[in-house]
Predict the structure.
Amino acid sequence: GGLDYLMSPETQATVKQEMSDAKVNYQHITFENRGHNLHWEEPEQISKDVKAFLNGTLDPKITKHEYAPFN
């Protein structure tokens, strides 16, 4: 997520570049205002995205999901 305390935006960018260089089927989606545990924070959206990715139906134009900050 955009607020991930374990992987900074710089580290995420490096991983994204490395995955692109590896020529693997990969899509990076940032979950704005969410942290490292996306499966707990946004389980429905994660499930939807993973299923679509595995089925080959994930829209390649999706690069981020916007959420209001947790209070």
Notes: The first helix runs from residue 9 to 21. The CA atoms of residues 12 and 18 lie 10 Å apart.
